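REVIEWER CHECKLIST
Item 1: Sequence provided? yes
Item 2: Single chain? yes
Item 3: Sequence as submitted:
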Amino acid sequence: MAKLILLCLKFVTLCGSIGAVFEDQVGKFDWRQQYVGKVRFSHFDTHVQSSKKVLVATENNVFAALNTRTGDLFWRHVDKTGPEGSIDALLQHGQDAVLVVGNGRLLRSWDINVGGLNWEIVLDSGSFQAACLSGQQDNVKHVAVLKKTVISLHYLSNGHQKWIENLPESETVDYQAVYSGGNGEVYALGVVPHSHIAIVVYSADDGEIIKQVSVEAPWLSNIQGSCAVISQGMLTCVDPAAVSLYMLDLHAESQMTQVPLQSLGLEVVPGFRPVLVSTQPNPAQQPLSEFFVQLGPENYVLLQLNNGQIVTLRDFKPVSNCYSIFNSLSCSVQILTIKIQTSYHIVIFAIQKCKGSNVNDACSINLFSAETGRRLLDTTMIYSLDPNVGKPEKLYVQAFLKKDDAVGYRVMVHSEDHALSFLQQPGRVMWTREEALSDVVTMEMVDLPLTGTQAELEGEFGKKAGKCQPRILLHFYDQSLLWINIQYFVYYFLPV
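Item 4: Structure as written out by the authors:
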């Protein structure tokens, strides 16, 4: 009798720890895939050293945070389809991410830790042009939004509008860029094509116009594609026709200074339009004095503005076959910054060598010091191109300090087929997301051949209607066999 009671107790304990479904249900309804689509903007979360998030805003109107270790979603927000939900800009500071949505219709702030909405405001109508964070004394407090005819400043904490002002001569001037260098001023930069540049300086306190300047620039038609602000408010533009750089001090000068590239010992590849790129790691501080000029498909030069003079820090010589694989400046060479206490250590990300020109080949990636031009030790990464995905279109790179104060970096690769791959040193692919599946427009269901067990189960439940009694009896028979097997297992394999 005691033996029977122990057997019953073991059986009850066993049943209490088991959860099950019918075998024909396993694997058929147990998964759901969530995608983000083609990435338009991306930022690594660096406000916490241990953070493992990368933020992405996509052309599918999705804003999400990915786990850099696994590629899984921390959270995801899908906006309205079409232009109404299109993400125009993504700005990040600390744990706040600010999005401009719907051609400047909405301004939103998200908490990137949990993906919660901090605030949302509706902006005045008008075509969106640009946005930037604005700060003073190392504190970022505002968001500036530039439209065709107006410029507005909003508090970063709650989105409330601090001031809004009409842009002067907006009927003739095409305002394209907004800039803030951490000095309490906001700059609206516009251009009258092939005539002059219009610069309007606003006070961040009350929106009052501090200065309004027009500078002749008959060679310029587009600010965003030809100009960048470097160092202490130095607007620098490149003129392909004259093969020169033009520089304008936004604080003082009213005339641009021409610097021929030939005077710096630089030559542009015939037929190539030079590209200029600068970096501003902290919106409450001035941009870096280092900047890149791309002189050809495979030729990049790192320059520095030093005491009003441009000097060459490093010439990245042409690398055979690299351009056939990485065909953009954002892929091949980038300026990276690592924050050390209150200053920024500048390093250069560069693809140095590519073996062959096929997608099956590999490339050698390195980091260089911007100060000395030397390659940093133990930073070489061998990136083997995956033959199952498209050619890389853009690389998103994060540099960081390791525990031993050495420099490390991570790379997220965006391919032409929208796939995302994440690399860690020395070149290991951590994960890949096939984001092309987010654009599926049609689907066809295919029945695969059944296994023996699946065929038996389909035979049990696949009888025609009207023969209910045999099906019930067969089901009871299968359950009784399962019950007998459980009793056999408990009696013979569990200790008494």
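Item 5: Key structural point noted by reviewer: The first strand starts at residue 39 and ends at 44.
Item 6: Recommendation: ____
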